[in-house]
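User: My instructor asked us to take a sequence, write out its structure as tokens, and then describe one feature of it. I'm not sure where to start. Here is the sequence I was given:
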Amino acid sequence: MLDQGRTAARSGPQREEVLSRSPGVTIITRPVTDVNEPAPATAEPVSPHATTFIRRSRATGEEQTFHLIGTAHISKKSVEEVTLAIESLRPDTVCVELCATRYAALTDPSRFRALDVPAIVREGRAGFTLATLALQAFQTRMGARLGVRPGAELLAAVAAAERVGAAVVLADRDVQTTLKRTWGNLGIVKRVVLLIGLFASAFGGDELDEEQVEALKRREHISDMMTELGRKFPEVKVPLIDERDQYLVSHIVEAPGNTVVAVVGAGHVDGMLKILGNSVDRSALEVVPMPSFAARLRPWAPVLLAAVAVRFALARGVAPGALFVAWVGPTAVGASLLLLAARARIETWLVSAVASPLLAFVPGSASRVLGGLEAALRVPSPEDGARVGREVTSMRSALSNPVTRTLLVTVAAEYGVGLGRLIAVAWLLVRAWRG
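Assistant: Let's start with the prediction itself. The structure tokens for your sequence are:
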């Protein structure tokens, strides 16, 4: 069947479109139906959400045929489509949009048991981890509503590959690298906006039905969404989408065999097709860049500004007691209010009321000190971690689980002190100006 398909593809040159060229290789796309036209009547069609492209060596004339299938990660139809396509084509290799970490996560339901909350707090990864869990919660909630596990089509592709004897390639970049590069791209304001958006999506009331999920695979909808994401969050789109387009393409075109099926999220398909044939340095995309000197200095700017304001205020005769109130009041109140909203333990709340004015002098210290105290007092267990994956799909469940509640308190502590610090700096500047 595969030989017949490749013959059919060569018999219709008027329908070929050369997308790009790389040294010694011509890359061509054509409608996926061309590949199956001469196939026996019993053969199942390739997915309607697939694109076929061929790499033809100009030196040897040899061809590799690739079928790129765009899916939705919470779609029953995607599960059926990739299974039928792989069983019909019987490819040599199946590539999936997974890394080893994500594959292990999808096949290990107890993965969250190993969450080391004190270490996460100590290393300053609470916000990053919360963003990851919020995205997981959204997919879990949608999957439960539609009766399909998130990523089920990728696991179905792996299972179908094993049945037909195809090799499996985990083609995606490690998820931790992707998330760290994404998080590192964001300033503090964008991080807050992104966290709020993720929590609104994860724990809000909006629901998608199956028809809306299937619409997400249509290219015109995907294009609109990618354009909007790029406009609102270019810092997110580049590492989360664009870089992974490059990474996925480079792995897929290196896959062995004459026929390759690649299963990826529909949002990647157009981007991947645009860069076919381009050289990709995967090692450069795997580096987590260190923050620049300016980025490391930026959190200290309010503290330096406060010191300058105090110096000028004292020179203009402002009473030290007034300056003390201007700093202590906002920093203590800001942290207390957000910790109250996050339902911190009373001990953490009391310590924050006393320590926040001091913690405000050292950016990042509030999350480590107050979050560390909360983790020590609450002591999340492995079973609490296991329940994160199963049960945390609403704000109420997030606040009742010791893991997510500790992380929420940690983030609330840092942003509460940060907000109070900004108000305090503004107050000090006003006092210095008025004298």
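For the description part of your assignment, you could build on this observation: DSSP finds 22 helices and seven strands in the chain. Try explaining in your own words what that tells you about the chain.
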